[in-house]
Amino acid sequence: MTLTEDLRKGSRFALSRILSQVEASTPAGQAILDELFTATGKAHKIGITGPPGSGKSTLVNSIAHQIRLTQPETKVAVIAVDPTSPFTGGAILGDRVRMLGLQNDPMVFIRSMASRGALGGLAAQTQALSQVFDAAGYNYILIETVGAGQSEVDIVNLAHTTIVVDLPGMGDDIQSIKAGILEIADVLVVNKSDHPGADQSARYLRSMIEMGHRTASSQYGKHSLLEFTDTPAEAEATPEPSDWIPPVLKTIAADGTGVPELVEQLQNHQRWLKETGNWQKKDAFILREVVRKLITASLVKNFDQRTPKALVDQTLEEVTQRKISPKAATEKLLAYNQEGINS
Amino acid sequence: MTDKKIRVLIAKPGLDGHDRGAKVVARALRDDGMEVIYTGLRQTPEMISEAALQEDVDVIGLSILSGAHNALIPQVIKKLHDNGQTHVIVFLGGIIPEDDIKGMLDAGIHKVYGPGTDTRLVCQDIREAVQARALAD
Predict the structure, then answer these.
(1) For a designed S-S bond to A93, which of A112, A122, A217, A311 qualifies (C-beta 3.0 to 4.6 A apart)?
(2) pTM of the predicted protein model
């Protein structure tokens, strides 16, 4: 009996084992991911991002509760990402502490992930894990990013709906018109709204939205470093500037205040995505990103395999001594690499 | 040994509210390069085995200072076995009387640590146990 057969029968144990294999990117894990791919594409992936301590985990807990309460037939997965120490490689994954109420619900599955050096708010394999949950029949996948600052916006390359969580008194109206994390929101939440300043924060956010700084290009990450050339296909994949106006909601995640309204907005957004054809466009965009990443990884791996370590070290030494520039070093190494391919 | 990260669940079964020790150990394991899933206070045996299942951990570290270990530990081990987690190595720390230690080991605990244990020893024990299990597989 293989793990994927067990998974189809609904084994949570198999699911957990597959998640580990996929996270470690083992050959077995990659094969399983390939096998499962055709069964994906149904789940509504919802990203939750915001600064550390803004209540993302607690909000995820409340959202999952609310979904389970109002839609008893649905399965909810949670992927909670916390940062890996850049010094030791270790991590404390503490998001579960806020989700204890979900622990005994067999329709909910929570998996913690360490970021393992990835920047941007997610781990390298978060997308892959979401595919596994998708294939396993989870209707909603809630993805909680690491505590984000201004530019950890990778979640937009993965989620259908992005919730940005803000706090009362986190900044004035200038903060709210800066580029970055606020731009990616499909739904904005001012959490801990029982604290002073909540109304003002909500007002700043609303006025930011009214200024209309949200554009299709920011929403769909056209500024990523590695980009395919602008083909008509890409132009087609870029959706029209949306007529979805991100709602601003006030919540108190700890006691559930405002959460029913939030879940309603998530469903509204899902409906809007589907009715306008943006669901497919988003899906196409997400998969395009996946393929790009795989190409990058594969090219780098090829480069590492073909280029002798001694040459790399020697070239880097020359850079350190300021004999050649980083760009010249890159050209030299790539030229060597190219010769290797041609010979 | 591969570079697979060791995943450890740290949990406090039962009702005592003293989680300082659990946090110190969690921090030490983090500093040793492990991924620590911290679930905090007042966990039932069901919650612990369910969290271990969802997180696919290699090791569980339990902390009990209430004196309820003789009641709780066999239940935790049983729940783990009930949902197929026989491979998970379970460590116990806290206030465990000398006379009870053998009973804990017989129940399936890999090792018991008392107050003042050097956390480096705990890290080393975990690495060795995980490695030994990997070789046995």
Answers:
(1) A112
(2) 0.85
- Interacting residues of A37 by C-beta distance below 8 A, sequence separation 6+: A131, A135
Q: Tell me how far apart the alpha carbons of residues B117 and A124 are, in angstroms, rounded to a whole number.
A: 36
Give the helix ranges, DSSP H, for B8-44. 20-31
Q: Are A133 and A77 in contact (CB under 8 A)?
A: yes
E strand or H helix that includes residue A333: helix A326-342
Distance CA A77, CA A75 (A): 7
Residue with tokens 């993302």: A56
Helix (H, G, I), strand (E, B) or coil at A233: helix
A16 contacts in chain B (CB < 8 Å): 53-56
Q: What is the Cα Rg of chain B in Å?
A: 14
Q: Distance between alpha carbon A54 and the CA centroid of its chain, in Å?
A: 17
Distance from CA of B83 to the nearest CA of A (A): 8
Q: Is A231 exposed, middle or buried (0-12, 13-18, 19+ CB in 10 A)?
A: exposed
From chain B, which residues contact A within 8 Å (Cβ)?
A: 4-5, 26-27, 29-40, 43, 46-47, 50-51, 53-56, 83-84
Token couple for A157: 């390359």
Which residue among A97, A104, A109 places its CB closest to the CB of B39? A97
CA–CA separation, A240 vs A215, rounded Å? 9
**Residues A109, A130 contacting (CB under 8 angstroms):** no
Task: Tell me, rounded to whole angstroms, the distance of Cα A242 from its chain centroid.
Answer: 21
Instruction: Find out whether B9 and B48 touch, Cβ atoms under 8 Å.
Output: yes
Q: With H, G, I as helix, E, B as strand and everything else as coil, classify residue A179.
A: coil
CA torsion A24→A30→A31→A33, rounded to 10°? Answer: 100
Are A190 and A201 in contact, with CB atoms under 8 Å apart?
yes
CB contacts < 8 A (A, B): 74
* CB-side neighbour CA atoms (13 Å) of A66: 22
Per-residue confidence of chain A (343 residues) as pLDDT tens digits?
688 999 988 899 999 999 999 999 899 999 999 999 999 999 999 999 988 888 999 999 999 999 999 999 999 999 999 888 888 889 989 888 888 888 889 999 999 999 887 888 888 899 999 999 999 999 999 999 988 776 677 888 899 999 999 888 776 666 655 656 777 889 999 999 999 989 988 888 888 888 764 444 444 444 443 444 444 444 444 444 457 889 999 999 999 999 999 999 999 999 999 999 999 999 999 999 889 988 998 898 888 888 888 999 999 999 999 999 999 999 999 998 887 655 5
